[in-house]
């Protein structure tokens, strides 16, 4: 029995190494990108529902972008606070801001995709750049750097949406490590030619991509997924690329309680069940191999069975993962989370297991 367990453990380690050395290394060791400005017109899309404090703080940062031709589409999704009033003041203040007012619709009650669709249809530019209402760009060159990756063939650009650092907060390190690992996954698979998701905090695509698939219609009944489900549907090896220059990052405030973050991740995870079969399999295999790696290692070491072999495999796996994720963290300005990597990884794996089990018995709450 223990011999079989050892063989199984070796297979699991091999699977983990394959992910890191074959897939994730594609991003970890990628060359630095050059941001060559493109002369394209861009509509920046911001959809907000009850985000008065955030939009008051962040919309001016969007309006002050150093870009030659862009408009900002502010979508108020039937807010009950002062978001609409703030948007109306910004529309008066900035000539390139246009406001879209969304009223609740019985068929699409509380559905962000409905609001986004109205905003996209009102956009006058051919290229769309999305950012959430609680996010802000890392620089005045955010639009320039994101749009620099567009070509005649590459009509979808996946960006990095980071979270602010909070001093002396272990939860903050968990959140940022999870964000880092997620980005490494979708960036790496995109470089391999198998893009499967993007994040609405930092995402750009040509408007025709939206109309080619009739927008969100194929998954309009799903409350979330305006970013990852849409990209999973339309992205291919030919039309999708990534942008990871620091000037292209966006930042948002992270959750400050474990419960808040846990519920946020429940919403994100719930859409993954609707991905294409290959994408679901590769994500599930990666997570299961992570979980089994720890369980089998602990089991074998508890019985001290071939402990030298087991510890050697554990050490080699950690060396490889630390190097790959370390280089990736350097690119995405998240190096400090790697000091806590072994502990954070264990916490994150079992948190994800808890999320999976919880989602089996109850549905997460979506758009406000």
TrEMBL record:
* TM stretches of this protein: 6-29, 283-301, 307-327, 339-361
Checking InterPro entries in the record gives: Glyco_trans_2-like, Nucleotide-diphossugar_trans
- Gene3D superfamilies this protein is in? Spore Coat Polysaccharide Biosynthesis Protein SpsA, Chain A
The organism sits in which domain of life?
A: Bacteria
Question: What residue stretches are annotated with the Glycosyltransferase 2-like domain?
Answer: 43-169
The GO terms describing molecular function are:
glycosyltransferase activity
Q: What keywords were assigned to this record?
A: Glycosyltransferase, Membrane, Transferase, Transmembrane, Transmembrane helix
Q: Is this entry keyworded Phosphoprotein?
A: no
Q: Does the keyword Glycosyltransferase apply?
A: yes
User: Which Pfam family is an annotated match for this chain, by its short name?
Assistant: Glycos_transf_2
Question: What's the family?
Answer: Belongs to the glycosyltransferase 2 family.
Q: What is this protein called?
A: Glycosyl transferase family 2
Q: Which organism is it from?
A: Flavobacterium alvei
Q: Mind giving the lineage of the organism this protein is from?
A: Bacteria, Pseudomonadati, Bacteroidota, Flavobacteriia, Flavobacteriales
